[in-house]
Amino acid sequence: MTAVLAVAVLVSVAGCSSGDGGGQSAAARSPGARSSSAAAAAPTPDVPPAKGSVKVVSTLTTGLTSPWGVAVLPEGDLLVSSRDTGTITRIDAKNGRKTLLGKVAGVAPGGEGGLLGIALSPSYGTDHLVYAYFTTASDNRIARMLYDEKQPAGRQLGAPDTIFKSIPKGTIHNGGRIAFGPDKMLYVGTGETGERGMAQNKKSLGGKILRMTPDGRPAHGNPWAGSVVYSYGHRNVQGLAWDKDGRLWADEFGQDTWDELNLIKPGKNYGWPIVEGKQGKAGFVDPVEQWSTSEASPSGIAYAEGSIWMAALRGERLWRIPLNGAKPSAKPQAFLQGKYGRLRTVVPAGGNRLWLVTSETDSRGTPGPGDDRILQLEVT
């Protein structure tokens, strides 16, 4: 892809950025070139350097099938979901050894749907609950399962307890990223399933960021009483992360022109399908940064070392967006371009380290020996 995990998958259609990474670029100018906010941001001691670095420290494991969501256990091992097999696997953070927890009952893979984001309960130390967002035969939903390490491999997951259902499903744009925020509420990125009007309909759960209690109820303080909708006007949210000051960031696929990184504020309208990218149109929130779809088609994001780190599918690179508060402090910088193929999920590994998960076996890539894999990165 801890109390803060990132919560947000696609098939090529006309006028679609490949959801997972397709679409034709209608603009090719350099990402970040438009960022007047970066030039205006006054540097402070907390601002990261304009130029960063990425070093691949090791390959933790190989041979994963359609990996999608990642949750980091308290001791540092990783839980990884497989979109197409509907399974969750534990990866030893020291030696890469795999242990199958089990298969999530009710998952119906298809297109960009299947077993997507996972997250640990904010009370995982006492309840040992794992949350999952997945596609069924009728909808996308969120369930929680007991993880019992004492059971034999393959039988360590309890039956799914559905806490929230009826999120629209489709062949494309199923969203799927989930994460618990600093407030211990569950945040959920959804897609509009290709039905563009959903994104502007506040009564629809498609094309939104949702905020709910761990039991699936509307969280106190949401913009609309009795509703889980937190922000709207999204096309297909794929990544969720919080910075050191508790601000929520999210990325999403554009159509043919601009992919976006947004600073999320409750009740705000992020424009889709009326607005794509930076247009300065009244009533809509412009993205903080934007990229042509060939350069990004973003998936998971993480915050580390003062920057947002964004995994790109079609763009096959890792983007670094250094921050000065709520604004970029310099132009985005790309790393690992084309070296490991499509990149699905990035999560903090502590200090200046990140875990990065590739996505070559998702039916869109060209898998080679060892795909898919998890890399450990050292970043600045």
What best-fitting shape do the alpha-carbon axes yield? Answer: globular
Helix/strand class: mainly beta
Proportion of residues in β-strands: 35-45%
Tell me the Rg in angstroms. 19 Å
The residue ranges in which pLDDT falls below 50 over 5 or more consecutive positions are 1-43
Arithmetic mean of pLDDT: 91
Q: How much helix is in the residues?
A: under 10%
For the termini, the CA-CA separation is 19 Å
Number of helices: 2
The total count of strands amounts to 25
Order of helices and strands: HEEEEEEHEEEEEEEEEEEEEEEEEEE
What about the largest sheet?
5 strands, antiparallel
Could you walk me through the main structural features you see in this protein, from its secondary elements to its overall organization?
With 380 residues, the chain is mostly beta strands. The protein has 2 helices and 25 strands. Strands 18, 19, 20, 21 and 22 form a 5-stranded antiparallel sheet that branches. The longest helix has 5 residues, at 36-40. It is globular and about 55 Å long. The two termini are 19 Å apart. Residues 1-43 have low confidence and may be disordered.
Defining traits:
2 helices, five-stranded antiparallel beta sheet, mainly beta, four-stranded antiparallel beta sheet, single chain, 2% helix, 380 residues, disordered N terminus
